[in-house]
Amino acid sequence: MKHIIPFILLFMLMSSAWAQDSTDWITSSEHPHVQIKLDLVTTQADQQQLQALLKVRLESPWKTYWRAPGEGGIPPTAEWQTKSNISRVQWQWPAPQRYQVQGIETVGYQGTVAFPLTLTIENWQQPARLQGVVTMSSCTNICVLTDFPVDISFNPAQLAASEQRVFELQKALSQVPRLDHPAVVLERAEWSASQQQLQLELTHPQGWQQPDVLVDSLAMELADMTVAPPRLDIDGQRLLATFNISHWLGAAEVASYPIQITVLDEALAAELATTAQAVTQVTHAPAVSSSLGLMFAFALLGGLILNIMPCVLPVLGMKLQSVLLIPRERGLIRRQFLASALGIVLSFWLLALFIWGLKTSGSALGWGIQFQSPWFIGFMVLVTGLFTFNLAGLFEFRLPSSWQTWAAQRGDNSYLGHVVQGMFATLLATPCSAPFLGTAVSFAMAASNLQLWFIFTGLGLGMASPWLLVAALPSLAKLLPKPGRWMQITKVIFSLMLAATTLWLLTLLSNHLSAAMVWLLALSWLVLAALLVVRTYGKQGLLIAVASSFLVVAAVAVTASLTSAKWTSGPRPDHAWVGLNEAEISRAVSEGQVVFVDITADWCITCKANKIGVLLQQPVYQLLQDPQVVTMQGDWSQANDQVTQYLRKYQRYGVPFNRVYGPNAPAGIDLPVILTAEAVSAAIDQAAGRK
After folding, report:
1. Where along the sequence do coiled-coil regions lie (predicted)?
2. What is the signed CA dihedral for 40, 46, 47, 48, rounded to 10 degrees?
3. Rounded CA gap, 272 and 262, in Å?
4. What is d(CA 638, CA 369) in angstroms, rounded to the nearest whole number?
5. Which DSSP letter does residue 99 get?
């Protein structure tokens, strides 16, 4: 008996070794930013094919590549030295994303990705072993090629099914483009050797939303071809994709070789195989120009609406008041307002240059992202504070006498101040979003560099349009009432609005500084304001200023309470938000729940308006409190890679962004930038399948 026990223990150890169903997380000490893991997944339904998941974890901002990596990069590969009892290993590719790094566009993955593998088993009852090396290329502004040794031994018949792994497998497979998808029809594929262009015409019966099309080939002759991002022309159900293709050896030849077409859109991932037909030249549809024209019109409207935002309106009011306070000739009024309009357009060009730089470096993009920087917020506090004091008459900006003489000899106190005034108005507008603005900005940030400048020029011209109108018709400025007491009253109102803006900007620093430090800065600013008021107007002036502030606050409070029945049902506690997690979205939807996603930021004025006016009001409040509704929030107040990638996934580049998921809408339903109770209620009902 004593001699038998060791043999029994040895047999048990060997059995447990063959029962291995996953590897540990494998990493390299030379490059710990990337890890891989191989999990086997069995359902016991098929005794010829065994599914597996090759999981990859990449630390931010590292990326790896798709099978066709774009203009740079190397796709992951696997060399299997041992495939005992395994006749074939098939690799499947989830739908990738496009990335730009230093002006080079690549195609791949960031964060976590799971590649489904299919292992063809020769004999289900016999032990099997898979051993080899997985080579993974990962890049930021540098690229590292890493080899990961993989060795897993198992007995297919002894593998136990795992619900968690089956769920992970199904999730990964759902992200793999479906072969010959019935909803996508390839009408034609044409190649022009003279133009070096490939053109595809695709139709989708439900219409296109935000499509992307990728082309690659398994043919050795096309292995080194470079496919530029396509030009997409959308006309209802019709999509025309035109690609510029090059080859490092010279002119490319695509006709007669098999190509793979990957089509991605909202809730759609399809893959088609075809051979392009040779033609003399491909035709170009005019759809891009019409859509670009529509986006330019949206940019004009969005920019125009920014003028009525509470932060911007005082600046326009200050400008109009300056015309009344000092009599000016028509020509001078025209030139001053043109200078301010130029300042606005210049600011939007600077924003376009800033965004172009971020696109080139591969950094996060977004409308208003400068408010994620404490240095920028501090600068804005300083600027708005100085403008507040100046508007209240507490001090004046004075040029040296020699500069004033120089400016006077040239006919106006120099136009630089008016240009700066326009630029200041633009800076104050950036935390605001408005109807049409989000659509135009999203289009611009996903478009070419030329289109980016074109759309931002439209935004600048739209915001500058009231200023340009006065410049064209200077008599409009003189239609205002004659100077009098009313101007002093509006001056106080405008200065209070700018003071409120300054204090609001100070609160944004709470994301970067301690609460005590923010309170100290706010009190210091108020004390400085009080000292300046006493110096300029005396103690009586201070009493009047304090009394006026209390009266304004009281008037707002009384007005709010008297009208509250029309816009609110009283204060309510905030929703029980959970952090943004796309895996949790999929899990909740699979369990029949509805998920309401709110991407917001403390500096986003429109986000606050949506929250107070819709999300905390009936009937939306009750809908979101339902136990079957998960309220999920992504905070973009500070730079957040997870939130940025989520926005990029849906081609959004600013906040607010709201999306509703559910059993009847697993891909999600977008909500408008300015929320309404009707829109939110309808989306929740649709996602839940109630209508």
Report:
1. none
2. -80
3. 7
4. 8
5. E
Rounded to 5 degrees, what angle do the CA atoms 421, 422, 427 make?
95
List of E strands, 445-593: 578-579
pLDDT band at 405 (very low <50, low <70, confident <90, very high): very low
Question: For residues 75 and 93, what is the distance between their CA atoms, to the nearest angstrom?
Answer: 11
For residue 421, which phi and psi values (nearest 5 degrees)? -60, -40
Tell the residue number behind the tokens 């900005």, with chain if given.
441
Whole-number percent of the chain with pLDDT over 90: 24
- At 15, which amino acid appears? S
**What is the torsion angle, in degrees rounded to the nearest 10, for the CA atoms of residue 261, residue 263, residue 268 and residue 274?**
-30
pLDDT digit string, tens, across residues 477-515: 666 555 556 556 666 676 777 777 777 778 778 777 888
Domains of the chain with bracketed CATH: 19-176 (2.60.40), 185-285 (2.60.40), 289-512 (no CATH), 578-688 (3.40.30.10)
User: In the numeric block, which tokens belong to residue 467?
Assistant: 């200023």
Is 134 within 8 Å of 75 (Cβ atoms)? no
What value does the mean pLDDT take over residues 110-126?
A: 92
Output the 3-class SS for 539-579: HHHHHHHHHHHHHHHHHHHHHHHHHHHHHCCCCCCCCCCEE
Write out pLDDT tens, residues 35-52. Answer: 999 999 986 666 788 999
Secondary structure tally for the chain: helices H, strands E: 17, 26
Torsion angle (degrees, nearest 10) of CA 8, 9, 11, 14: 180
